[in-house]
From TrEMBL:
UniProt superkingdom: Eukaryota
Swiss-Prot/TrEMBL cofactor(s): pyridoxal 5'-phosphate
Alphabetized UniProt keyword annotations: Coiled coil, Decarboxylase, Lyase, Pyridoxal phosphate
The UniProt record lists the keyword Protein biosynthesis: no
Bias kind Basic and acidic residues: ranges: 1-16, 695-704, 736-757
Residue ranges of every copy of the PDXDC1-like third domain listed in the record: 469-574
The species this protein was found in: Smithornis capensis
Ranges of compositional bias, category Polar residues: 683-694
Domain spans labelled PDXDC1/PDXD2 second: 357-463
Protein name in the entry: Pyridoxal-dependent decarboxylase domain-containing protein 1
Gene: Pdxdc1
Region (Disordered): 1-24, 647-757
Molecular function terms from GO: carboxy-lyase activity; pyridoxal phosphate binding
Length: 757
């Protein structure tokens, strides 16, 4: 037995992971590993601004609840039962009193959809008495139907069907209003007709999920009418949404107050109060505890009741005043933003109640003038659908960019981008879901409004100049306009490379090379524009994407510069290709001439001089002077030339002045500090004024000159020559006068100029 024990100690399994091998690790190393996993290895290099969660003392209380729950679970069974019952009953009573839900029970769950799932099971057990025995056979005889608004959370209906084991046909999406009322509220009249049709077809209306604050726009359904409809058809009414938080305030709107009469509601206190890792709560009313136990809403295990411990601690720490203050602060933030948005042009808001709306949704929208509306209507009469869809697509793209910019510039505001069915892409501010977590204050809202004021002129200018840019590109030879409605900027352009090559792959590579070089050249210019290759996914290839612009952009100069730069790159590319071919042919020709020169040298030297020893002796007695002929390769002509003329010119010392470097005709005269593609009226006026003054001086001098005699057809050759000599002399005199006026009063310089003339 001792030998076996020693062998077991020596034996080690190779499939055991590294951290579990041996006798374990100490506490310090384990906590250090957790810290590295939480903050990463670059904690010292990066700032801690990424830690957006504002964990205060109330947050520490919630986190302490999880640790205490683990300690309490090791108590003896009787003491544990008493303690958990006290914690659960206190928390349930406090929540029911805070949110005006009398005589209710509570179910605490981690996933906010789990409460609705348990409620569905409770309703199934209630409406189908034989369900515990028969199971799904009871459901086949009378198919249950669950009604959900089309404005509900994405994927909620499918998740319920998957968890309940029901087909998707049991889920019915109710459309929202289209004619009257809010476009985000459930159409009650249509819902009534749908329920009656389902009853006539043998189905059983089971449950209705309503919203007190839709996930997108934050609108509340007509809960009073929906409750009457549910009582009429013996249906269960479940309500969820962010507006349920306002039930804790002193003043509650009548539309939200009707939620207190519903059969169940789900509260997400963690985001409302800024409490980390606290469970969501589903309050419900039901008289049969056995059915609640069968549905999973209650548990006989004491440890399950400890889920309410973090909320039990946090609610006591905050108190009634602290809870109301946090919810009221979020409502004040939304009202502050809404008041500022009303004073901004080109901003369209979508709120349910301007006096008390916890969620603010807004978007950038530029109203057309009457003239634009008439022209737009004339175009829409012919091709209505493409214009409307393209216009909305462009606005969606611009609002997507606006939301991302605001979230990046003011991260403490908590704004995000939301897609609505009717409004399209909008920017949403929901402080009840973000302010307590991020610590949003009034100054953050003011900063958000200031950033919005700076972005609006950029959006309007870019939207107005997009059409002009498209027209300029289409009129310019060599450029191709690419319509990309998903790009938030001035537009997309491609330099169209023309080649006679039939190889498509080679043309594609050359096109990519030219446009890449074009992008590099444009980014080297001193301008406020951003040039890029476009988005990482979904963008066009081999294009130049131009970002947002300002109103002082010179579109014609921009397009002309892009075209000229593209042509220059293309010409240089072709010149390089031609030069490569010319150099290759020149090398071949040089090799032939060198071979020919070697043969001629052999004939001149003779055969004896090629023998190693005899040739050296013969060269010593009779040296042979071979004439070395140099060669130079002319890249312009593409030919080999002799170097004799070069040596002769250097020997004579006759050098020529190199030609001046050519400047681009597109180089625009700018003021000091002025960037490219900027329209400057001041510089153009100054230039025209200066040119007009100099032109007037020249005209005055021309007027003072006596008229030259015009030669007639009857003059002879001698008279004609004399007339020409007089004109030349007069021109020299005028030139001398001009130089005298422009030169400083120095007699020596005047005499030198006269002697030179």
């Amino acid at each position: 037995r001792k030998v076996e024990e020693e062998n077991d100690k020596k034996y080690s399994r190779k499939d055991i992971p590294g951290p579990l091998q041996g006798s374990g690790q100490d506490m310090v190393s384990i906590l250090q590993l957790v810290q590295n996993l939480m903050h990463g290895e670059e904690e010292e290099e990066t700032s801690q601004s990424y830690r957006l969660q504002n964990v205060g003392e109330q947050g520490h209380m919630a986190l302490l609840g999880h640790s205490l729950a683990a300690y309490i679970s090791v108590l003896d069974r009787e003491r544990l039962r008493k303690l958990t019952t006290r914690i659960l009953s206190d928390t349930t009573l406090w929540l029911c009193r805070l949110f005006r839900y009398e005589n209710g029970s509570a179910y605490y769950h981690e996933d906010d959809r789990e409460g609705l799932l348990k409620i569905c099971r409770l309703v199934i057990h209630t409406r189908y008495e034989d369900y515990p025995v028969e199971g799904f056979n009871v459901l086949c005889s009378k198919q249950p139907v669950i009604y959900i608004s089309s404005a509900a959370r994405t994927g909620l209906g499918q998740a319920l069907c998957n968890q309940l084991g029901l087909p998707l046909s049991c889920m019915c999406r109710v459309p929202c209003n289209t004619m009257f009322g809010s476009q985000h509220q459930m159409d009650v009249a249509l819902l009534d007709r749908v329920i009656k049709d389902d009853v006539e077809s043998g189905k059983l209306p089971l449950l209705l999920v309503a919203n007190a604050g839709t996930p997108g726009a934050g609108h509340t359904d007509k809960l009073g009418r929906l409750k009457e409809l549910c009582e009429q058809h013996s249906m269960w009414l479940h309500v969820e949404g962010v507006n349920l938080a306002t039930l804790a305030l002193g003043y509650v709107s009548s539309s939200v107050l009707a939620a207190t009469k519903c059969d169940s509601m789900t509260l997400t206190l963690g985001s409302w109060l800024g409490l980390p890792a606290v469970p969501a709560v589903t309050l419900y009313r039901h008289e049969d505890p056995s059915l609640s136990l069968a549905a999973g809403l209650t548990s006989s295990q004491p440890v399950e009741k400890l889920r309410a411990l973090p909320l039990w601690l946090s609610l006591q720490y905050l108190g009634h005043d602290g809870i109301v203050e946090r919810i009221k602060h979020a409502s004040q933030l939304s009202q502050r933003l809404l008041e500022n948005l009303k004073n901004l042009d080109f901003i369209k808001t979508s709120v349910e109640d301007e006096l008390s709306s916890p969620v603010v949704v807004f978007k950038f929208f530029q109203e057309y003038s009457k003239r634009d509306q008439t022209s737009h209507a004339a175009q829409a009469s012919t091709i209505q659908h493409p214009i409307i869809s393209n216009e909305r697509h462009v606005y969606d793209t611009f609002n997507q960019w606006l939301g991302e910019q605001l979230a990046q510039l003011v991260p403490a505001s908590g704004v995000d981008v939301v897609e609505l069915e009717d409004e399209g892409t909008c920017v949403r501010f929901s402080p009840l879901m973000t302010s307590a977590v991020l610590g949003t204050e009034i100054q953050d809202i003011d900063q958000l409004v200031d950033c919005l004021k700076m972005k609006i002129p950029v959006l309007t200018s870019t939207l107005q100049l997009r059409e002009e840019f498209e027209q300029e590109v289409r009129r310019t030879v060599g450029l191709l306009y690419i319509e990309d409605l998903d790009w938030p900027g001035l537009g997309v352009v491609r330099y169209n490379y023309h080649s006679d090559e039939k190889n498509d792959d080679k043309q594609e590579k050359e096109l990519e090379k030219i446009n890449t070089e074009l992008l590099k050249k444009l980014n080297e210019l001193e301008s406020d524009l951003t040039f890029s290759l476009g988005p990482e996914f979904g963008g066009q290839k081999n294009c130049v994407y131009i970002g947002m612009v300002t109103e002082d952009l010179d579109v014609s100069e921009l397009v002309e510069t892009i075209a000229a730069t593209g042509r220059e790159i293309e010409e240089n590319s072709r010149l390089l290709e031609n030069m490569t071919e010319v150099v290759r042919k020149g090398i071949q020709e040089a090799q032939l001439q060198l071979q020919k020169a070697n043969e001629e040298r052999l004939l001149e030297e003779g055969l004896l001089r090629q023998i190693p020893v005899v040739g050296s002796v013969l060269n010593w007695f009779s040296p042979f002077q071979a004439s070395s002929k140099g060669r130079t390769f002319n890249l312009t002509a593409g030919s080999l030339e002799s170097t004799e003329s070069m040596y002769v010119s250097k020997a004579q010392g006759t050098g020529t002045t190199p030609p001046p470097t050519p400047t681009s005709s597109l180089a625009k005269q700018r003021l000091p500090g002025q960037k490219a593609f900027k329209r400057s009226l001041r510089s153009s006026d100054g230039f025209s004024e200066t040119s007009s003054i100099s032109h007037c001086d020249d005209l005055e001098k021309m007027d003072q000159r006596p008229p030259a005699p015009s030669p007639s057809h009857e003059q002879g050759p001698l008279e004609t020559e004399k007339a020409e000599e007089q004109e030349v002399a007069q021109a020299q005199t005028d030139t001398e006068d001009v130089h005298r006026d422009k030169s400083p009063p120095d007699g020596t310089k005047v005499e030198e100029q006269a002697s030179q003339r």
